[in-house]
Every structure is written in C-alpha cells, then in structure tokens.
Design brief:
Ubiquitin-like (UB roll); globular; homodimer; alpha+beta; 444 residues; six-stranded mixed sheet; ten-stranded mixed sheet; 2 domains
C-alpha cells in the first residue's frame, strides 16, 4: 500500500488531457466607480478535460447555499463532467432566482464554446454575498478564457490566481504515482483565507454524524486526475480525503455558503478500473489524501492575518464526536487563538475550552503538551490535570515557532481527532472590519 | 404585576442588614518579582448579612470547574448562608486538592472571625488559572477586610472594585419596590470582561435543554436583598433571572471555569413569605430580573476591547433551541463581530452564520434588520431572503451607533431568543495575546 508518491510540476494540468486558463473580466469592482482596471487581478478560471471525465464533489452543508453549489450538487450526481468555470469577486449567494439563472448561464456559455453538453459543465463562485453576477463581464471573460485555454505558459498558475480572493498566494500541487504499471497523476488548486471552517458533504445535506453546530470558508478546490475510476469509487475516495483535510481546518470558525471540492478523473492514464477498497483504490486514496491535506494546510497557512499555525491533536476521547468537539472548541476559542498569537502556551484557556465543549472531560485526567510539527518530543504542561515541572520559559519556547502541535490527551477512551488551526491577530480584525467608505471591501 | 421599581443608591448595602468591604492583599502579583505594591488594586471583598440569610446560586456548567465553585454548589444546596469572601487575581481553578483545601480555608478563616458556621460562608474567585492561592496574603486580607467591614464610606463600591479583573469600572445597582406594603430592596455587584459566555445551572451540571456546545467568562455576580423568601422560591427566581440575563450574554464565546451568581435574602424587609408563582413572587421576580439584566449588560458594555454592543433578536424560529442556536451563531461569529467593529451592516455574514447554525433556516424566508436600542423603526436590509431597497449608506448609519439592535426573523415558527453581544476589535486581540515576558498577564 505504501506507494512512492512523487511531487511533479504542472498543478492541475500535470495529469494528461487537462487544460486551464485564467483571465481578468472585472467581476468585483464593476459598477462601484472605483476605476475598474485597477490592479487587474485575474478573476475567472477554466479547467477543461479533453475527454469527458468521471466527477465527484463535496459541498457546504450551510443551509444558506450559493447558486453555483446548487447547480453542481445536481450535476455531480450524474457522475460525468468535462469542464469547470470558476469566478472570484462575487459569490452568487443570496441572489435568488436570478442567481440560479446566472449560474446555469455561465455553464451554458462555456458549453456552447466547447461543444459539450451543458450538464457536463460545472461552476464555482467566491466573493461578495448578495450581489447579482455582472453577466456581460462574465460572458466576455469566458469567451476570452476559452481563446487562451491551454495556450498560456502559466495556464494552471493563472487559473489558481483567478480563483483567489483574500489569498496572498496561489495554492497548487501535483503528484505522480504508479498504478498497475501505469503512471497516474493528480493535480489540484484551491483558494480560501477567511470564512474558513468547512463542513462539506456529498449532497450539501448534513449527515447526522457530523457534529451539531460544529460545522462551520469559502474554500474552493479543484482536483484533476488522469486515473481511470468509476464515479462511485471516486466519490467514496473524495469523501474520505475531505474528511481528513478540508473538513479538519479552521481559520475563523465560519462556514461559507460556497465551499466546494470537485474532482475530475478523465481515465487517460489507462490503468485498469478498480473498485472501492481494492488495493488499487487504496493507492489512489492515499495519493488523493495527500493532495487534499497539503492543499488544506496551504489555506490555513495563508489564512487572513495568520501568524501561527497550530495542529490540535486530541487523543483518548470516549468517542470520535467527543474528540472532534474538544478539538474544535480549542481550535475556535477566541482566547486560545489570541494566546497563540502572543506565543503564550496558556494551558488554562485550553483546558477551559475543553471543559465547555460537548466532549466528556474529567479535569484530573487531562494531559496538555506542545511539540514541533513532527510530533516528536512532546513538552507536557499538564499531566493528569496537574501542572508539570516544565518552566514557563520552556513552554513559551515550545509555543513560539510559526508552526507547532498541541497535544491534548483526555485519557478516557481511544478516539482521536485533529484540527489544523490558526491564531487570531489584530491583522485579521483590521482586515475584516472592512471600510464602510468602500463597499467593495465588504460582503461575504 | 407592574410594580414601580425605583433605582436607589447603596449597591449591595442598600438592602437592610448588609455590610461590605474591599481590601488589597496582593493576590495577583505575589512572587512574580514585579514590585507587589504597584497599583494596589483592591483584590479581596466581603459581603456579610447581619443575620443568617436564605441563599440561591447558579454556577458554570464547564466540566473543568474551579474549587470555589465546587464549595458553593455543595453549600448553596442547604439554602442558608450569611457571608461571602471573594478574591480577584487568582481563579483557584485547576489547582487540585490544594485548591479545594484553600477554598474551604478561606471560608473557615472568615467564619471564625465572624463567629458563624463555616458552612454558611461562601467563596468566589476570579483571575489566573492553574496557580495555587497565596494563602498568607489571603488570610491577612480577610482579617483586614473584617476590621473595616461596614465602616468605609464606599464599602459597597470597594467590594465591587475588589472583584474586578480586566474590568475598567465597577458594576453595581440597587432597586427598591413595595411588597405587601413593605419596602423591599435588591442590590447587586458583578464583574467580567473577557472569557464571557456564561451557561450556568443550579448545580453546575448541564441540563439537557441547554444548547449542545452553545454554552460558553469568568463573570461573578453577588446579589443582596432584604426580602423574606424561602430557599426554593429564591432559587426558582434566580434561575429565571439568570436565564434571561447572564446566560444570554457573550463577549468572546468562552465559558469560564468560575462563573457564579449568588443571592442572599435576609428577610429583614419583613414582608409575608410568598410561594413560587404567587403575585408577591412575580413582583420580586420582576425586580430581580431587572437587577440581573442591567448587571449583565454592564459586563458586555465593559467587555475587553468592546467598542459596540449589539442586541441580537431572533424571532420566528421553529423551536426555542433553534432561536438560541441562530442567535449564538451570529453573536459569536468572528466575521460578524469584526464587521460590527467596522460599522458594516454586512447581512451576508449574518445570513451565512444563521445558515451554518444548528437552527432550521430557509434562505427565502429570512428577514434581517437594524434598529436603535428601543427596537422601534427597524430598517430592513433583507426581506424574505432578498435585499431591500435600503441603501448601503442608510444601512451603515443604522449599524453605526455604539449600541444597536439586530433583528432576525426566520419566519418558520413562533420561538424567539435574544443575545447581548459585542464587536471583536484589535484591542481585544492585543489585550489577550498577553506578554510572554510578564507571566502575570497570562493565564485565565
């Protein structure tokens, strides 16, 4: 099962048969009178497979869900897609019937250009909430993006840039591995920096097993692969990968109306198709897990105002739900997050958050410790509810790196959970308080 | 039932037969080598009734719960108390057996001085977590406080100051009303500025009805009254008052290990004792509700770094649990709170938070509006999921006062809930990130 995984160049166009492009069509600043050419940040991306592909998706469980999400949920069910159009600058959320019409129109414009069925075109949006799409701009953007599709030397990077909102850098990866003697590749791009605590499911509906109220970015992720796989196996693999990556990150605890992960698998690697839980599946799963987790961590590291990234590991919980509740309580506590910003080990705030979480906790059994990202050499501040002999200086040192791990053992059972979390900084507050003299800084 | 309620001077010593004092005994800075006399902020308070009183209490439901809370839960059950000793600077939380010994010792020192049974002395603490109490200082503080009990001209105000931690001002109130032709008074003091989202119950155990995970300050509140009432009726009245006041506030969403509300009723007003739900009870309830709500709002207004106070009113929810979940999601959303700080009406973030809450929400039915604190003339930004014609300038104006109300109608049922909430500011982050060169700024 341990298959060699090589990092390769090329991002989403590393797998065979995929093309991409990114263009500027002035989606965000339209009509605000702020000088529309300013900056010219790319804002519309295309990802296209040369041949029809198998598709799987995961979508926000927010009950207030954007039009493009609704369109994708319906189309992904059919298991086939060939192209995706994505814009930044406008979330097309809370836009009513017009929003649904616009989302479908985006797919039909692209479908006509590429001579493919509209149902095999998907759509994603991120940006302001509650403003209808500037469709003339979007249309000219799609036409332009089709013209240059696959031609730009930086096609994948431009697509990755075009989906950014408050992100400071594009996020991308590609890996290669062998399956039945065939070379298979997976590529991915994603975006997201604020409104980040995704809780996604295959249909956008909340599975009963997901923690009550504990699901809370717009994050968008688009994965391409040339593996040959059927839709059911691809969906199973994606659910597993998202459960251990995007659904385990938080920047600010807010779940967006638009969170979406899509995978297109076009089969050009020509491996033998495999079934769920076969050895081939496990090899693919492991590679997909790696791609999703690396992309998810890039979102936390580039989160709005983030200075420190903390991996919260809860072990020894009675149930998985308990482990998840304790990890999320710590990862989203304003007081814990501000202490991380200060480089303050503050285990008092951590045990306080565990104590008010929905998890069963016994104070006298709790261990709390800190380690480097590799998880070795844990410095314990609390053992069985009692402060250890570690000095305040030692603890501060352990909580001072740009990335560290927080280890919480409840010592009540065997369940565990991890959250990839971030500190809360003045910069986050300043960035998100907006500027009421400039409405384009506001909204979703 | 509508009884005239007059505000009176005197705070907790306004009711007959109550004495108070506040002293400095250097609890916080002890042993830190920071120059212990610096500032001399009062840090130990006494509240004493001249005669034994009926008592009721509400306590944090945090599973990690401080020693003084454990002592009070046990003693309040017996329904009788005569004195309370309270310190700031140290929470006596996560201090194990020594903490329990110290909490009891505090009560026994005071009991010996006042010649009353130890079981009728209660204790409260707030401050750093995980540090044992500096008992020699505490003891000398109690002896000093007993000496000056009732003698200082500002006795109640000094008690209110002594319980402050990050509070910028003392919080106190007293009211007077008539019951069976007798003049009755209620006084109260409280403290709390950070780690504020209390969820208290009578025993510290979580009632099933309380929202899962939605319970999250140290806030302390001490109420005195000369009403004659039995313990059962007093506890019933306090639970009702806390449910609509302290359990409805949030500064940062973090529930403390120490949250406590205690009421001592010494009967010196000599009214006829009344039973739960009698007309006399209702008059008392109404006055107690007023005292608790005013004190609770003082906490939010003086919350750490708070610039704006927002009352979040959710109406038309399917169930009370839904109304509560929606109100808490909005009141604790980092993005909503930062937008309040900026004076940004940002209904997109608000509907996003409602949508990810545990409440049942239908986007096309949601109304969102803003009003002055009196709740009149609501300016709607969203009606049935659609933006209204209100202009961005008008909405900014409605969200610009230091205090305003946010109205959310789900239009799915008849249940409602309110949360008294605050913005999230750079000042909050800066204050709470601490200073790792000065351990006394850290901890709980």
């Amino acid at each position: 099962m341990k298959q060699k995984l090589n990092l390769v160049e090329g991002s989403i166009v590393a797998p065979q048969g995929f093309l991409a492009s990114g263009v500027f069509c002035d989606i965000k600043r339209l009509g605000t009178g702020k000088g529309s050419q300013k900056g010219k940040k790319l804002d519309l991306a295309l990802i296209v497979s040369e041949v029809p592909a198998t598709v799987a998706g995961m979508f926000t469980t927010n009950q207030v869900c954007a039009a493009p999400v609704k369109v994708c949920v319906e189309r992904v069910k059919k298991g086939r897609a060939q192209a995706v159009v994505v814009n930044s600058g406008n979330a097309n959320a809370c836009t009513g019937r017009q929003g649904m019409k616009d989302a479908r129109e985006m797919t039909s414009i692209l479908a006509r250009q590429l001579h493919m069925p509209e149902e095999q075109v998907l759509v994603g949006s991120t940006g302001r909430i509650g403003v209808t799409m500037p469709m003339p701009n979007v249309k000219s953007g799609i036409l332009h993006a089709v013209q240059i599709l696959g031609n730009a030397p930086r096609q994948a990077e431009e697509a990755a840039e075009a989906i950014m909102t408050s992100d400071t850098k594009p996020k991308q990866i590609a890996v290669e591995f062998m399956l039945d003697g065939k070379k298979v590749r997976i590529g991915g791009i994603c975006k997201g920096a604020g409104m980040i605590q995704p809780g996604m499911s295959a249909t956008g509906a909340r599975p009963a097993a997901l923690p009550h109220g504990g699901l809370h970015a717009t994050m968008l992720c688009f994965v391409t692969t040339d593996v040959a796989i059927d839709a059911k196996a691809l969906q199973a693999a994606l659910q597993e990968a998202v459960a251990h990556s995007f659904n385990r990150i938080t920047v600010d605890g807010d779940m967006s109306t638009n969170d979406t992960v899509l995978v297109l698998a076009n089969g050009l690697a020509a491996n033998e198709k495999f079934r769920v839980q076969s050895s081939g599946f496990k090899v693919f799963q492991s590679a997909l897990n790696h791609v999703c987790l690396e992309l998810a961590k890039m979102i936390v590291r580039d989160g709005e105002g983030v200075h420190r990234v903390v991996t919260v590991r809860v072990n020894g919980a009675k149930t998985i739900q308990d482990a998840d509740a304790a990890a999320r309580a710590v990862a989203n506590s304003a007081l814990v997050k501000t202490s991380w910003h200060g480089g303050d080990p503050n285990w008092g705030r951590i045990i306080d958050a565990i104590g008010y979480s929905a998890a069963t906790v016994v104070e006298e059994k709790v261990d709390i410790g800190y380690s480097a990202p590799n998880g070795e050499k844990i410095l314990w501040s609390l053992k069985r509810g009692h402060p250890t002999k570690a000095t305040f200086r030692e603890l501060c040192l352990a909580a001072s790196p740009k990335e560290f791990e927080l280890h919480i053992k409840l010592n009540l059972g065997k369940a565990c959970a991890v959250m990839y979390a971030a500190d809360l900084t003045e910069h986050y507050v300043d960035f998100n308080k907006g500027d009421v003299t400039d409405p384009t800084t506001l909204g979703g």
